[in-house]
């Protein structure tokens, strides 16, 4: 038997119908996850409390060196750092980071206006809980940082990693949409 989360062998003393090797893997399996389109790619890192990217072994990782990246399952099973992150490498997966736009369940006006034109795509709360990550596909070239009202917008498609929480915002789907028609207003 193999654990459904980390793919390691389940011990011989486990129940015959066991699906997980530990309570940690069982809890992880029932948490919200990143979209399958991201989980299928071997571009995952861990990150430290100070947001530095880490390998699954806890050494420094790089958003431009694929030798320091791992699979989603390896990153999720690792205990290095405080969470997982996804590396953007220029293949068309993009992330729009909205800073300081959420207060509890209330979305700031500038962010609501911006998201009104956004296609239905995976949107998650940031690690702090006060921002949002809008994930999708498109072409942004070099990243861009914009200041809007009381928050900021960062648009990235390559050379960065984004901390992934899997905590979906509102009713956003768990899939990535094409943001090409929406991005020109941001890049």
In short:
The protein has 187 residues and is of the alpha+beta class.
Describe this structure in words.
With 187 residues, the chain is an alpha+beta fold. The chain folds into two domains: 1-30, no CATH class; 32-187. It is built from four helices and twelve strands; from the N terminus they run H-H-E-E-H-E-E-E-E-H-E-E-E-E-E-E. The chain has helices at 23-30, 36-39, 72-77, 109-116; strands spanning 44-47, 53-54, 83-89, 93-99, 102-103, 106-107, 123-125, 132-137, 144-148, 151-156, 158-164, 177-178. The strands form three sheets. Strands 4, 7, 8, 9, 10 and 12 form a six-stranded mixed β-sheet that branches. Strand 5 and strand 6 (106-107) form a beta hairpin. The protein is globular.
Layout of strands and helices, then pairs:
Elements: H1 23-30, H2 36-39, E1 44-47, E2 53-54, H3 72-77, E3 83-89, E4 93-99, E5 102-103, E6 106-107, H4 109-116, E7 123-125, E8 132-137, E9 144-148, E10 151-156, E11 158-164, E12 177-178
Parallel strand pairs: 8-12
Antiparallel strand pairs: 1-2, 1-3, 3-11, 4-8, 4-10, 5-6, 7-8, 9-10
């Amino acid at each position: 038997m193999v654990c459904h989360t980390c793919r390691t062998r389940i011990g011989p003393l486990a129940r015959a119908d066991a699906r997980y090797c530990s309570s940690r893997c069982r809890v992880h399996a029932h948490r919200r996850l990143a979209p399958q389109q991201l989980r299928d790619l071997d571009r995952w890192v861990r990150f430290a409390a100070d947001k530095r990217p880490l390998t699954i072994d806890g050494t420094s990782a790089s958003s431009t060196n694929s030798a320091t990246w791992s699979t989603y399952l390896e990153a999720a099973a690792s205990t290095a750092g405080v969470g997982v992150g996804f590396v953007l490498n220029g293949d068309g997966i993009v992330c729009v980071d909205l800073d300081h736009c959420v207060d509890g369940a209330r979305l700031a006006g500038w962010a609501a206006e911006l998201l009104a034109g956004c296609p239905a795509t995976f949107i998650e709360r940031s690690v702090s809980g006060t921002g949002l990550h809008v994930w999708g596909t498109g072409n942004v070239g070099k990243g861009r940082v914009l200041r809007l009202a009381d928050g900021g917008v960062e648009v990235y498609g390559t050379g960065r990693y984004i901390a992934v929480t899997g905590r979906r915002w509102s009713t956003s789907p768990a899939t990535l949409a094409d943001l090409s028609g929406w991005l020109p207003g941001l890049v």
